[in-house]
Amino acid sequence: MNDNSQEFNQRTMRAVIVCLLVVFAYTNIFLAPKKSPQAPQPSQQAPQVANVEKVVAPAPAAPRPSGPVAIVGAPQKTSDAHPTPAEVTSSGVTFVESDLTKIAISHLGARLQSYALSNYKVLQGEEALLDLVGDIHDAPLPLGVYVGSESDERVVYKLVSVNGVGATTPTANLRIVTGGRVELEFKGALPSGLPITKKIILSDGSYLFSVEVALGGAAQAGESVWLEWPHRFAQPTSSRSTGLSHVTYIDGFNKVHHLPEGELSGGLRDFGTSRWVALGDLYFMSTLIPSVSGRNTMIGRDGELYTGRVAGTQSGGSFTVYAGPKDYKTLEFIGDYQLQRSIDLGWFSFLALPLLWLLHYLYVILNNYGLAIIVLTLIVKTVLLPLSQASFKSMKAMQEIQPEMKALRERVKDPNQLNQEIFALYKRRGVNPMGGCLPMFIQIPVFFGLYQALLNSIELRHSPFALWITDLSSPERLELFGIGVPVMVLLMAASMIIQQWTTPNPSADPAQQKVMMIMPFVFAGMFIIFPMPSGLVLYWLVNNVISITQQMYLRANKGSVYFGTVVASAAIFAVGFILTLI
């Protein structure tokens, strides 16, 4: 029978392994993406014009594909079917282009037909821009207005002014000058005959814009004006991680909620008082910010279609919308809305956030996120070296007394007396049975913090490292004879095997030793079956290599482990840098 401390040591090791398994299994099984068609692109882009006041005839918009998707939302008096692509285009389309976005606004409903991000492609190496309107076929377009049981989906709006100047043509094709803004004013009438005005105010250099709605009279008693954004995000096949669809909102108690896609069902649900509601995936989101307090948020899901609505007043509302990347610096700069909290950094966000900032700072210096990950990993391992050193020494001490513990177990058969003898042995040899576990546990939050920082860094999307690793947010595969070989995963498995050989085993149990030697193959299998982003694999590989170096220095007990860490870190970085030059 093992003593209590020995059993605790074994349970600790198993708990660490289980924690890692849960992270990867949860990320890849329960949050695995569902494939859907790629987002359509408008066939024409707005030409550059001298100023926003210039109005010219529009180019035709690309039709949206049609297909069977259930309608999400309140009953409508206007029609049982959503407008066809031909109807949307024939009503007139106004185009607005800035340095960040290319937007098409259909005059049928004064809604977004497309909202393309100029700096983000759908797939790496292709020209198609990522469109946050996504693939919404047979469904409402974003920026719809709902009042009671009627909506403006089939209202044919007239563009009456641009920046306060009366429009001279039915549609506009505009370019926002640097530092400028454009205000588009549309007028129409709801099916009940109630006049409605919708203003869309866009600014250069910002993904934040305003939508102002004003009714010609008050809505029925108890009814409010609601602004809607329905969305189905395209799932690029080259990047697993962009498929983590979810809804995020901040409630009336300033608490943030991240709801995975599986937790929403059954049409629109009242989410009560919220500061904002965001529909998004790992890297992008569309956020609606209500204009009133109180009951102001509704969220729904029908199939793969998500819908968010936020409330105004009986006579209208001034809404704010953010549609763009989940870049922490960009969101934090916006200020009052706390949109940066939409990035889910997990329980250890207090560690993930500074690591994320450090990653960005290293990229500014190195101009390569792969090298930045390498340096970040080496810095973390150096900072944690005292803990690793303490853990190694404790495990080595436990390993050295295993023969004496074995002799005690053979000689003493009474469990109580055995425990007393073992604790006396610990005291006599100056061994702390908890010494190997505690430093390991302290490092676990750092691991998870770094894991979340890398997983949620939009900068890794389509960011190359070296050789065949062209997208750090996607799994790496080297094509050999038509077969994709996960080279870094295999190197990582090999490094884990070597690390097991160089790590002292404090247990004399042969079964436990065999289990620990099997774990590298288990992890390698998990990484192959459930591919992880290559940026995370690179981190794990570098972490293992520097750990092996530190353990070899500690085992040999010759020279300074700090000097060895510095030399090994320089060598690892040099190898990474040379690879980027090939």
Give structural attributes.
582 residues; alpha+beta; Beta-galactosidase, Chain A, domain 5; 2 domains; ten-stranded antiparallel sheet; six-stranded antiparallel sheet; 13 helices; 23 strands; elongated; disordered N terminus
Fold and architecture overview:
By secondary structure, this protein is of the alpha+beta class. It folds into two domains: 85-344, Beta-galactosidase, Chain A, domain 5 (Distorted Sandwich); 352-390 and 436-581, no CATH class. Helix content is 36%, strand content 23%. The chain contains 13 helices and 23 strands. It has helices spanning 4-30, 85-90, 328-334, 349-366, 369-383, 385-400, 402-411, 415-429, 438-455, 487-502, 510-529, 534-556, 561-581, and strands at residues 93-97, 101-106, 111-121, 129-131, 144-147, 150-151, 158-162, 165-166, 173-175, 181-189, 195-203, 208-215, 225-231, 246-251, 256-260, 267-272, 274-280, 284-289, 297-302, 305-311, 316-325, 478-480, 483-485. The protein has a ten-stranded antiparallel beta sheet, with no helix packed on it. It has a six-stranded antiparallel beta sheet with strand order 6-5-13-20-19-16, with no helix packed on it. A hairpin with a 2-residue loop joins β22 and β23 (483-485). α1 (4-30) runs parallel beside α11 (510-529). The radius of gyration is 29 Å and the shape is elongated. The two termini are 57 Å apart. 43% of the residues are buried. The model is unreliable at 1-19, 21-79 and 236-243 (pLDDT under 50).
